[in-house]
Amino acid sequence: MIAKIRGILNEIPDDYHVIVDVNGIYYEILLPAIIMKTVKDRFQIGDEVTFSTIYDIESAGGFGKMTPRLIGFLNDSEKRFFERIIKVKDYGAKRAVKSLVEPLEQIANAIETGDIKFLSSLPEIGKRSAEKMVAELKGKMTGFLPEGNVVDSSMDESRMPDFKRNAVAALIQLGYKRTEAFRMINKALKRNPDISLTDELIKEVFRQPA
Fold this sequence. Notes:
The protein has about 210 residues and is an alpha+beta fold. The protein folds into three domains: about 1-75, CATH 2.40.50.140; about 75-150, DNA polymerase, domain 1, CATH 1.10.150; about 155-205, Helicase, Ruva Protein, domain 3 (Orthogonal Bundle). Helix content is about 40%, strand content about 20%. It has helices spanning about 35-40, 75-85, 90-100, 105-115, 115-120, 125-135, 160-175, 180-190, 200-205; strands spanning about 5-10, 15-20, 25-30, 50-60, 65-75.
């Protein structure tokens, strides 16, 4: 069993594979989409890299061809996430590699909050697979979230209008944690849902109840 590989990044031949030179032995490693994005952003050809790996065998079904492969991750947490999510019935490693295109903590949060719409928008995951993920994994993914906190998907920054996103940034600059900032803003908007400006929202966050 190969648990980790450390060597020189030799080549990125396509969107899912890297070649790593380990003392003259060249390992081909399959990377999930979001891991590949991070690798391309963080490393250049010739850099030293370390991957936590899973040894997987793809079967063509029945007595067909068995294809061994190494699937790589940049840390053990990503590896554990992958191992857990591929246990979902009829999902598997091949689909997971292509479907994990968003940050893993965001996917974990979507599972914990039952965000079927977000999960089914990922490649290779339709509504039925998304529903299976939630049914089988909800309550088991908090370990992959920052400080174990689940964030309401309605407070996902990628879906926020600018005035909300700016308010989050302002609260973080004041020293509040990201999840705490979300909760404060959510409460403020429940009190006053007509707010549409950042300054008004910040004032409402700190407004003392009468």
